[in-house]
Amino acid sequence: MTDEDWMWHALRLAQRAEAQGEVPVGALLVKDNRCIAEGWNQPIQNHDPTAHAEIQVLRHAGQILQNYRLTATTLYVTLEPCVMCMGAIAHARVSRLVFGAYDPKRGAVCHALQLSNAPFLNHKIDWLGGVLEQSCAELLTSFFKARR
């Protein structure tokens, strides 16, 4: 499967978040071209500020693989991760990150904090942004427009 195929899967997960009244962000972790874990934003439903889609996926994958180090994996997420999620991604040793929409205000990959290049992190993450960017951004934009 291609990065675009996996991102379509992440978009379907983001729609689950939206159906639950959550900010529509979806994520999944792939290893050896197989989906290991998937998740979507659930902070409201779980009463948990850390229940971002990425964190949900990392927790689930760690349980499945019985290891907190998720080496040789690719994380797909529909929105550029925040600082909390980038820290968790680095600590989990995810090899590659692919995201859809850029987040110029809070994104921690290449915008607000640029943690993908931070010299103090002991793990370098290869990343690719903008995969299905328009579809990912439109889902978020329509969600927030409807809320206002």
Automatic annotation (TrEMBL):
Record-linked Pfam families: dCMP_cyt_deam_1
Cofactor binding: number and manner: Binds 1 zinc ion per subunit.
A Gene Ontology molecular function term of the record: tRNA-specific adenosine-34 deaminase activity
GO terms, biological process: tRNA wobble adenosine to inosine editing
UniProt-listed InterPro entries: APOBEC/CMP_deaminase_Zn-bd, CMP_dCMP_dom, Cytidine_deaminase-like, tRNA_aden_deaminase
Residues covered by the CMP/dCMP-type deaminase domain: 1-128
Entry EC number(s): 3.5.4.33
Binding residues annotated for Zn(2+), in chain numbering: H52, C82, C85
PROSITE patterns: CYT_DCMP_DEAMINASES_1, CYT_DCMP_DEAMINASES_2
Transmembrane segments: none
Superkingdom classification of source: Bacteria
Active site: E54 (proton donor)
tRNA processing listed as a keyword: yes
Enzyme class: hydrolase
Subunit structure: Homodimer.
Membership in a protein family: Belongs to the cytidine and deoxycytidylate deaminase family. ADAT2 subfamily.
Name under which the protein is recorded: tRNA-specific adenosine deaminase
Source organism (scientific name): Methylomonas lenta
